[in-house]
Specification:
282 residues; mainly alpha; 15 helices; 79% helix; 0% strand; globular
């Protein structure tokens, strides 16, 4: 494993080896999910798709419908970044409509996030890319509402920073960010994880930069970029990167904007992230 979370990926791989030797299907699922998470975060979408399908195949042999829907969600997110929008949307829609957390154990403990929420956040991006902006916004808002109803901090942070803030910028522009950016900053402060705090801060930084505060790039955005690392260039943040580049251009800082966009373009080409590539080239 290389890139963001490389040590975590290696640990999950060792966990899978142990689970295989023990023939423990529960921990096989958890380990494959962990390996998928690291490969997805680093843009290795072909590998992520293979792991998602491996998770799905294993879940088919197990009795719990919820596990199979998690496999659908992982597969859909991988396909989305590969530009296969129809297939991605179908799988993500299925999870959003059908997933119910099991009463016998918590999937938020096993897989960190509430699954319907994360599916809705990714579905919002698929819908936006298909030209369905109103439906995309509704999906993003539903993700936030569902996470808040559960009062589950990691899910609230994800729904705001990867879902609602991102779709707000894509549909309404930077000026529409004030309310969701403030909510994201508050949620991530409450959660306390440094990378999540950075994800919250970056939206307020973009709002300030878009309003003409030229100091916001060094004060707010660059420290957040350093904390987030290569994950800055995943599909859910592509609209953010584009908006930062545009704001820098309006402030006469075209070179910095081009440098930021170029880094994203190079990464998107390297990993065949077709959806991000088209927006960053624009």
């Amino acid at each position: 494993y290389q890139g963001v979370g490389s040590e975590t990926g290696s640990a999950f791989r060792r966990a899978l080896e142990y689970a295989e030797r023990m023939r423990d299907d529960e921990y096989r699922l958890r380990a494959i999910w962990g390996m998928w998470s690291v490969t997805y975060l680093n843009g290795n979408y072909d590998v992520a798709l293979s792991l998602a399908r491996r998770f799905s195949a294993l879940s088919e042999a197990l009795p719990h419908k919820a596990d199979r829907l998690i496999g659908n969600r992982m597969t859909g997110m991988s396909l989305l970044c590969m530009g296969r929008l129809g297939d991605a949307r179908g799988g993500l829609q299925r999870v959003a409509e059908s997933y119910e957390a099991p009463v016998y154990r918590s999937h938020r403990t096993r897989f960190i996030y509430e699954q319907k929420m994360i599916a809705l956040s990714s579905l919002a991006h698929a819908l936006w890319l298909q030209g369905l902006a109103d439906q995309a916004m509704r999906a993003a808002q539903q993700a936030v509402e569902g996470a808040r109803a559960l009062d589950h901090a990691p899910s609230i942070c994800y729904a705001l920073t990867e879902g609602l803030c991102a779709i707000t910028v894509l549909t309404g522009g930077v000026s529409a960010l004030a309310e969701p950016a403030a909510a994201a900053a508050a949620a991530t402060r409450r959660d306390g994880i440094s990378t999540r705090k950075a994800r919250g801060r970056k939206w307020n930084g973009l709002l300030a930069l878009g309003a003409g505060d030229s100091l916001a790039y060094e004060r707010d955005l660059r420290p957040a970029f350093d904390e987030i690392g290569e994950a800055l260039y995943v599909l859910h943040y592509t609209g953010f990167v584009s908006a930062v580049c545009e704001a820098l251009g309006r402030l006469g800082r075209e070179d910095e904007g081009i440098e930021l966009a170029t880094a994203g373009i190079e990464r998107a080409r390297r990993f065949e992230d077709r959806c991000s590539l088209s927006e960053l080239l624009r």
